[in-house]
Predict the structure.
Amino acid sequence: MSLERFISQAVSSWMSTEGPDSDIVLSSRIRLARNLSQFDFPTLATNEEAFKVTAAVEEWANSGSHPGASRFEMVKMNDIQPLQKRVLVEKHLISPHLAENSRHGACLLSENEEYSIMVNEEDHIRIQCLFPGFQLSEALSAANEIDDLMEESLDYAFDEKYGYLTSCPTNAGTGLRASVMMHLPGLYLTQQINRIVPAINQLGLVVRGIYGEGSEALGNIFQISNQITLGKSEDDIVEDLKSVVKQLISQERSAREALAKTSNIQLEDRIFRSYGILANSRIIETKEAAGCLSDVRLGIDMGYLKDISKNILNELMILTQPGFLQQYAGGPLRPDERDIRRAAMIRERLKMEIKEQ
């Protein structure tokens, strides 16, 4: 296993399998924030303290005391190029903050990329577990297993009243962020998404774009997560999110059925036009590509398009990002050059799909 493998493959192995409700829920993520009691939080820590935190986590990783996960690879941010960091961000394996702002930052990656443990991000340790489809409870169990194993060797900062102590007070308590990535084209096309997002926010949840805070919901992909971590148990947080996600799944399916009944020919035309653009364009920008990929995935899920893999959305949404395009090109590209390469990559990928049938 090597960094090159993590960089070169767009789709993590866990993404190649379908989970429950994967026509709408692309992935489920659990993230646990933890800090070591003997060191200042990363925002105040000295370089020496940050180095010692990385060393402590690396020692745990090398101890072999983690049978619940695959073997880990330690990737240190100081040892890799900016473009490689960007690719890891695009694969959701590390955060933009870790890539850009951390001191002695690092990440432990499991072989199948289900587990990603960020070191010296906003907190000393951020354990992330990603599962395909709607599997929040399963992801929580997996993350807790790693958390328990780490706590056997590492002394966490914990308070009987406030729970796990974190750099940002909003993460204190359980330190848990649970989130799902959802593809909601039906709610977007029926314009219901505009009233649903504010309603979700009022329930103590937050709706963000594909790469989290500050990012755009490209391709009708939305990330929905909890905001409150203090005063609620992990199970309560996950169950509250699951309840809302179940309602969204139901509403999205109803919206798709309504479109098929009331605007069938218009919907079919939209899907095949988008497929035509992807299959034939010579220049395409990120936003247009994401929108067309969303339409094509909707067409696959609703049966308008046959013999095309559902995973094509997951794969191409990552392959066509700026970091991956430049990684494959072997160096920096101008925006117009990226648009040309993006179009060529999509055309080739669709041709491969047809040849495989």
